[in-house]
Specification:
The complex is a heterodimer of chains A (380) and B (357). Chain A is an all-alpha fold and 380 residues long. Helix content of chain A is 83%, strand content 0%. Chain A contains twelve helices and no strands. In chain A, helix 1 packs antiparallel against helix 2, helix 5 packs antiparallel against helix 7 and helix 9 runs antiparallel to helix 11. Chain B is α/β, with parallel strands linked by helices and 357 residues long. Chain B has an eight-stranded mixed beta sheet with strand order 1-2-6-3-7-8-13-14, sandwiched between helices. Chain B is globular. The chains are: A mainly alpha (380), B alpha/beta (357).
Chain lengths: 380, 357
């Protein structure tokens, strides 16, 4: 094994080891979170006397919900656990709406309820969290994180590109003053300059000759740039889509408040939160169905999905290029295998059918011949 | 403005809610899994990931011609036999029908290139041939549900000589409608990009679209309702069985979905004409066998206006349109399904299975 090959193997082992370490780190962290959520030392502290018994349950609910989420992440659960997971998502929306409703209900109780200025009683951030939860929107933090990692990738590739040039630049700069001495026949200086330039060659061209093709880095940079561009388009479409949903959610809430105000005006009693919840659900379901039925929404949803798929495709393209240097089978290569396998299976099936047909024909032809032969034998 | 808000009741509601949630947590985490599809059956044929089962029955069938049930690719076949007392299959068996069913299986990336031709002209056809060969019938009865009904209609149009009677339940045929959200959303779906990207479209992705058809009811109200039955173990298990079925969605082989969306959802070729499956032209007028077409009045997934036109498009003279008063899923699991629909289907089939064609 050459030194270079040995280095490659060592590097691969290093990558595998790191990935295993990373896996176990994540595993332990998940288990730790799971345990912590069950025996959360803070959850009792979250209970504040005088704020009602619901706060105790609220703290417990959050803790248990985290537990189910953590368990589901590491151990695929049975039907009961999976239903519990979805139940918590639903109950989370219930409690979020309750938090949102509390200031409203206080205003109703204190006879301060004014439907025209209900917004001052509500926390729009909390309401947005509720809508995000229901529609599965990614948070701004998640989007920012995605952009940070994309930028990191871009910088990495730029750094690679610079590495190819920088050793030569350094060598030239270091030896610029040495040329007069070389010209005067100073062999030591010549040797030093040769070593410097050989070192630059070793760090760049030799690598280039052995691994990447000329212009590869530039292609990679273009690819990263394209991926960032597509993610930006997706982000823009996503914002447009969210804006549309928030708009409807806000209008629906105005209708809910108007309906509540109507009751207030008429002097009808409000039985409690669940009445508000039912009203909120029926008005929202109707409002969103109206939105979903519009051609505008259908088109926007189509464009959003398109943008997401383009961004995903460019990330895959980038990943494949990056992974090409590793001794693993790539997605596109597997697709070729699947395609070949599919076509071969179809061919074999068609040929089997043909063989069966021919065999049946032969058998049909053989029957009368055998019958005739038997008849002849009988006559004799 | 003098509105008495019942504070005491509000606090009680929240308290009750959290108490129920606590009880539900204990009850749910105690349940490891639920049994579904318990009617006895045996595997009689398989090809790639597709399996054909025959349900075991006591005594000889009174309906001479066997029935092959064909479900949609997106859900699992055991919806027809969710639990012993909510089983369309058991009802059919009870009424003397000999029932076979296809399990399409779970496609993996290796199946991404499977087309409608593979599913209809190969798998479905091979299952039909197996039933014909092993039971000695030249023609058998086909019963297609949802997308499985569309497959059966296409198959019957291509192979009228192999189908004695056709029953379709909540089957989309006319895709031009925008009444159902899936129909309207599909018109603006770039199916090429989706299939090229994913190969096999995950069931979770499709399920998230189904949940968006009624986001508040399906994400909140349904689970709040579950809290009320949590103390009743049997009712809770029923709920979980349904949940299991809803979220047990196999992925979709990309090439098959590509053609289904392009030719049907976007091109409406079953109605307009021009549909070809594996080079074979599909003309619904070639469906000449008796047809029983069942639609659900409150179907939010396949609206009646997409189902009903089949009766006008086929060449059959003996055709019946059956209105089911319920929703898409109620067709299989509701009380009316067991008491009215399954016996009606069995009676319709039995009557026609005796007749010579």
């Amino acid at each position: 094994m050459t030194d270079s090959a040995a280095e490659n193997v060592a590097s691969m082992q290093d990558v595998l080891l790191k990935s295993q370490q990373e896996f176990f780190k994540n595993w332990f962290s998940a288990v730790e979170n799971m345990q912590r959520s069950v025996v959360d030392p803070d959850w009792l502290a979250k209970f504040q006397p005088g704020r009602g018994v619901s706060d105790v349950y609220g703290a417990w609910r959050q803790a248990f919900s985290k537990y189910v989420e953590a368990v589901s992440a590491v151990v695929p659960g049975g039907a009961g656990m999976q239903t519990a997971d979805r139940l918590y998502a639903g109950s989370d929306a219930y409690m979020r709406l309750y938090e949102f409703w509390k200031p409203l209900s206080s205003a109703v109780c204190e006879k301060m309820f004014d439907p025209t200025s209900y917004r001052s009683l509500m926390d729009p951030a909390k309401y947005r969290e509720l809508v995000d939860k229901l529609f599965g929107f990614s948070t701004p933090e998640a989007t920012a994180e995605m952009f940070r990692s994309m930028s990191g990738l871009f910088e990495l590739w730029s750094a690679h590109a610079r590495q190819d040039v920088q050793p030569w630049v350094d060598a030239v700069q270091r030896n610029a003053d040495a040329w007069p001495k070389i010209m005067s026949g100073d062999t030591d200086t010549s040797l030093k300059v040769f070593r410097d330039f050989y070192s630059a060659f070793d760090k760049t061209v030799r690598n280039v000759l052995h691994v990447p093709a000329i212009g590869k880095d530039r292609e990679n940079i273009q690819l990263v740039s394209k991926a960032i561009d597509r993610h930006a388009v997706f982000f823009a479409k996503s914002v447009e889509f969210q804006h549309k949903v928030y708009g409807v959610a806000q209008k629906a809430m105005e209708q809910v408040v108007a309906a509540l105000a109507d009751k207030v005006r008429k002097g009808e009693p409000v039985s409690g939160f669940e009445e508000f919840l039912k009203l909120w659900i029926s008005i929202n379901e109707k409002a969103f169905l109206e939105l979903f039925r519009t051609e505008e929404y259908s088109k926007l949803q189509g464009l959003l999905l398109d943008a997401a798929l383009e961004a995903r495709a460019s990330m895959h393209e980038l990943m494949e290029r990056h992974l090409r240097e590793f001794p693993i089978v790539l997605r596109s290569e597997m697709n070729d295998v699947y395609k070949t396998n599919y076509e071969l299976t179809r061919s074999v099936r068609a040929l089997k059918r043909k063989v069966a047909e021919l065999e049946a024909q032969l058998a049909a032809r053989a029957k009368p011949t055998a019958r005739r032969a038997k008849q002849k034998k009988d006559i004799r | 403005m003098n509105v008495p808000l019942d504070i005491k009741n509000t606090l009680k509601e929240i308290n009750d809610f959290n108490s129920k949630l606590l009880r539900a947590s204990h009850a749910l985490t105690d349940i490891e899994d639920v049994d579904v599809g318990t009617a006895e059956k045996e595997l009689v044929f398989s090809e790639d990931k597709v399996r054909l089962f025959r349900y075991r029955r006591q005594g000889a069938p009174t309906c001479k011609t066997p029935v092959l049930a064909v479900y949609a690719l997106v859900n699992r076949y055991y919806m027809l036999d969710l639990q012993p007392d909510r089983s369309f299959i058991r009802k059919l068996l009870e009424k003397g029908i000999d029932v076979y069913i296809i399990d399409w299986g779970y496609p993996t990336q290796a199946d991404r290139y499977l087309t409608l031709d593979d599913y209809i002209n190969e798998y479905l056809n091979d299952c039909v041939d197996h039933v014909r060969k092993t039971t000695g019938h030249d023609k058998i009865n086909l019963m297609g549900i949802c997308q499985g009904g569309t497959f059966c209609a296409i198959y019957s149009a291509i192979n009228p000589d192999k189908v004695k009677n056709l029953v379709t339940l909540v089957t989309p045929v006319d895709f031009a409608t925008n009444d159902g959200l899936l129909f309207s959303w599909s018109k603006n779906l770039n199916i090429d990009a989706l299939v090229d990207n994913y190969g096999v479209i995950s069931g979770d992705l499709l399920n998230s679209s189904f949940l968006m058809l009624m986001p508040f009811t399906l994400n909140i109200t349904k689970y709040m309702g579950m809290l009320d039955v949590v103390q009743d173990k049997e009712k809770l298990l029923n709920f979980i069985r349904m949940e299991k079925w809803i979220f047990d969605s196999p992925g979709q082989a990309g090439e098959c979905l590509r053609q289904f969306v392009k030719d049907l959802y976007q091109g409406n070729k079953l109605v307009k004409g021009g549909l070809e499956i594996g080079g074979k032209k599909v003309d619904l007028k070639k469906i000449t066998m008796p047809l029983l077409n069942i639609y659900a009045v409150a179907d939010h997934i396949v609206p009646p206006c997409s189902t009903k036109p089949l009766n006008d498009l086929v060449g059959s003279t003996d055709k019946e349109l059956y209105e089911f008063k319920g929703g898409h899923i109620g067709v299989f699991v509701g009380g009316k399904s067991q008491e009215e629909l399954a016996p009606a289907v069995a009676a319709w089939l039995t009557k026609r299975s005796e007749e010579r064609t």
